[in-house]
Amino acid sequence: MEKVLLISGSPKKEGNTMRVMGKCSDKLAAMGLEPEIISLAGKKIDACIACAKCVGKGICVLDDGLNEIADKVRAAKGLIVGSPVYFGTARGDLMNLLQRVGMLSYNNDKFLSWKVGGPIAINRRGGATATIQEMLMFFFINEMIVPGSTYWNILFGKKPGEAMEDEEGVRTAERFAENVGKLALKIM
Fold first, then answer.
1. Domain span at residue 66?
2. How would you classify the pairing of strands 154-156 and 89-90?
3. SS3 of 93, please?
4. What's the CATH number where 115 sits?
5. Is the pTM of the predicted complex or chain greater than 0.90?
6. pLDDT in tens, 70-91
């Protein structure tokens, strides 16, 4: 069974981002794929220190759980990343994770190339398109395939559960997950 990894970049284990990842996971499972959600809640992913010790080894020297997540990304056919919007950008430790996984791939076996996926942003009011653009840089520079949806992958909500009331946003995220699943099944 083909695996799709979903990463919730929220510090809230039951927040809007995790709930959106759950909706996407349900769509992927209904397609016969094997989704797995990783929550960054309670984790502290440090920034890359540019030591270059991962080059040729494929393992990061920082011991904060990143290598275990990178192994799961490596084994998956697809990757969906969700982030709450903080001051108009993606959450810092999520970007730390993406940058370090990107370095592991780029400096070693290019394991991200041709994986299917993309970002989803959840925000109270504004900054979602900038957040998606910020996360898209990771997908594009690593030769990943990013499908579209019926609109931008943006949901609106602040309090936990409030984003689930954004019916268009939920439909857009679910359709995006379906498109990731369809492509993962065809490309790989």
1. 3-187
2. unpaired
3. helix
4. 3.40.50.360
5. yes
6. 999 999 999 999 999 999 999 9
